[in-house]
Amino acid sequence: MAAVVVAVVVSLVRDSLEPAWTVVQWYPPPRFADETSLLAVLGGLLLVGAVNSWMFWQVLQGPADAAPLPRRALWLRRLLYVYVGWLLIPVPLPDEVGTAFDVVLWVPIVILFAQVLTRSGPAFRLILVITALASTVLSSVLEAVSPDSYADWAAPVLSAVSLALVAAGLAWFLMILIAQRRDGRWTRTTMVLGACQLAALPVTVVLNQLVGFPESVVLSDLLDVLVVFQLVWLARTAHELNRPGTAPDPEPLRSPRPLLALMVLAPLAVIAPEAKPHMTYTWLDADCSSIPLFADTPPRDRRRVYLCLAGNGRFYENIRFWSAGGPRVADQQLLGKGWKSCAAGDGKVRAEALVYLCPEVVARDRPDLLLTAAQLRQREARERARRRQEVADEAAQYVSGCRDPWPALRTSRQVTAVHLPTDWDGYHIFDGRKASLEALYAETIESDSPLVARRGAAMVSTTLEYGATCVTVKVLRTAPPIRRKGWDDVVDADLVLGSGRVYLKGRGIKVGVALPKAGKYRVRLHTRTLDEGVGEDLVVVFPASRSMLLPEVTTSS
């Protein structure tokens, strides 16, 4: 009841019927509920919640301590408790299965009722069994027959038969109340509650006739609370079975076993099996544009992600996927293939998709697939830092052996570093701005020169596939003399170094040297191979002018 009150307050605050309706009725509100007055419906829900709370209080009270029950009375109590649970707890079953279960459970209850009640003669108990079975089994059979199969003359006849069966059910209930009163084991309160349930059906019909649509839809849902009288009556009947009666039990009414078997199996016979299994194809319409990692996917969405990955056909070997004019693959086929791989590990499904079905199996061989995106970024960052440190340590071992290739050309702005080429990759000379490198990458430059420049960046090619190259950078205020002797190539190019510094970046090399000022500079590259796997480069940077320049200048095309 406290939960109901809190839900009603939340509905008032949010101006929405959904919280209170869901807590009280255990299912979302009907479509026309919003067209009814909110305060009126909330008042009805508050009343329904109070009645339901009283119902739980009555149902959950156990039977009083007493002498052991006879075998039939004990089984009647057990079946009554099971039937109360069946009515109280919503079970998502198909209509045909639910009807069959209800009949199979109710038939032995009515038979045991007739055998347990005292002070009722054999004829009275026989009428009890016949009316109960007619109203239960025959009604289920009529409901199972499709109306389209009726002939024109049969419709009114069947309608009259249905009405007669309803009357038979009411007659059975009235006879049970009379028999309880004669028996003496049940209290007056229990019988009054049974009488309230007997009057609930006509009350519901009359109210629905008086109230117009759509209010009657909401009212019908609220009037479902009247079933509490049946639940409480059944529970109290089971509770009070062990109270002493006023007369000894008469000779029990024994029913022929073949008749009981026929009554139980007849409703099951009218339930036809499905011709084909119900297949779904949700992966065809699913949005598979963004596939999150397993650890970042909520559990409720993991099956949908698996269907997206498996449905595109890249993760299976021996399954024919849907194509234009071919058979479609259902969700159940994809899931079946996945569960089979989970159980047998046959490798028909790639681990990237299988992890969304059975992560505990995939984790044995691929624990990395269970990491979050943040954990993967951290691991990749640690791996990059480790590789950079390895390269830096390797370069530090070589730099001590590098010497100044032009000691006579002195300057206070110079630095020596080591470039470690792999697979012929070179290094860059630029002004430290990322945009300068992007502009260089954006152009397709074809040149045989080891120095290719584009505005603020230049690419230096290497003659070594693997090894080490000592790179010395000298920044001068004036152009140095041209010196070719001892060098394999000497080329230069113009660079616009707008940051006031010149940077060299490559594998193992990341250095910067300050310039006198920002502006246009000339970069002269001297390169030579000293030994197999050992090279030496000299990079001279000086302000651009027309004096002391090489006659052949390499620039970008």
Give me the secondary-structure topology:
Blueprint: H1 2-14, H2 18-25, H3 38-59, H4 71-88, H5 95-116, H6 122-144, H7 154-183, H8 188-210, H9 215-223, H10 228-239, H11 257-269, H12 282-285, H13 302-311, H14 331-344, H15 351-354, H16 359-362, H17 373-399, E1 414-419, E2 427-430, H18 434-442, E3 451-454, E4 457-460, E5 468-475, E6 489-497, E7 501-506, E8 509-514, E9 519-531, E10 534-543
Parallel strand pairs: 5-10
Antiparallel strand pairs: 1-5, 2-4, 2-7, 3-4, 6-9, 7-8, 9-10
Helix pairs in contact: 1-2, 1-3, 2-3, 3-10, 4-5, 4-10, 5-6, 5-11, 6-7, 6-11, 7-8, 8-9, 8-10
Transmembrane segments: 38-57, 78-93, 99-117, 124-142, 154-179, 191-211
Keywords: Membrane, Transmembrane, Transmembrane helix
Walk me through the structure.
The chain crosses the membrane at residues 38-57, 78-93, 99-117, 124-142, 154-179, 191-211. Keywords: Membrane, Transmembrane, Transmembrane helix. It is a single chain. With 557 residues, the protein is of the alpha+beta class. The chain has four domains: 1-60, no CATH class; 61-269; 294-370, no CATH class; 405-543, Substrate Binding Domain Of DNAk, Chain A, domain 1 (Sandwich), CATH 2.60.34. Helices cover 48% and strands 13% of the residues.
